[in-house]
Amino acid sequence: MLDKIKQIQHQIEEAKQKSPKPEADVTLIAVSKTYPIEAIEEAYVNGIRDFGENKVQELTMKIEQTSLDINWHFIGHLQTNKVKYIVDKVVLIHSVDSIKLIDEIEKQAAKKQIVCKILLEINIANEESKFGFDLNEVDKVVKYIQQLHHVEVRGLMCVAPNVVDKEENRKLFQNIYKKFVDIQLQNLDNVYMDILSVGMSNDFTVAIEEGSSCVRIGTAIFGNRQYAKRMER
Ligand SMILES: *Cc1c(COP(=O)(O)O)cnc(C)c1O
Prior knowledge:
With 233 residues, the protein is of the alpha/beta class. It has helices at residues 2-17, 37-45, 56-65, 83-86, 99-111, 138-145, 170-184, 204-209, 219-222; strands at residues 27-31, 50-53, 71-74, 92-96, 116-122, 151-158, 191-197, 214-217. The longest helix is centred in the N-terminal third of the chain and has 16 residues, at 2-17.
């Protein structure tokens, strides 16, 4: 696993040189969904501190299974009735895709007297199978969040189409980056726009070249997913 991580870190460095901000950090999130806690511990020993999970029950179970000082990221579709289980356990919720969900996060974060950091998920290719806001809706959503006290928007996220040639996604990555910068320049309350979570195992280099500051990588680190061992809710 160490070889794979080193290889990815090297590719991240190379891609950064071609990006709009070569000096800025890119966060590598290891997407550990379906893999056992031992795989997470191995990645941790090899220097990874940020891990992403997409199911509430799997995440909370893994948190109970380890005492390692991990930054947990929630990256999957989140049902409103499950917000309360994770709102104070993760450093960032990447996949916020509705106003209803924003309202629930505000409510649960208020109860716990915290400010929850979120990204707005964008359905960048308007795919029916995917969640997320339309790029044109985002201005309205960030304006709405300005009046909240327990939710803070840190940026945008997208899951791009699963393409054979990663170049096919470049234009989409340019579109989300343009919106990201556009909102950044508006200097809105509760809206910081310092994290752009774009890029997965097969397209992260192109994503970074086009401005991503955070890549979510599963299979390229851990190998094929281990669905049989996964505990579904
Ligand atoms: C599974 C998943 C990833 C990682 O995908 P890989 O192709 O294995 O790198 C990234 N983001 C989200 C939202 C995911 O669900």
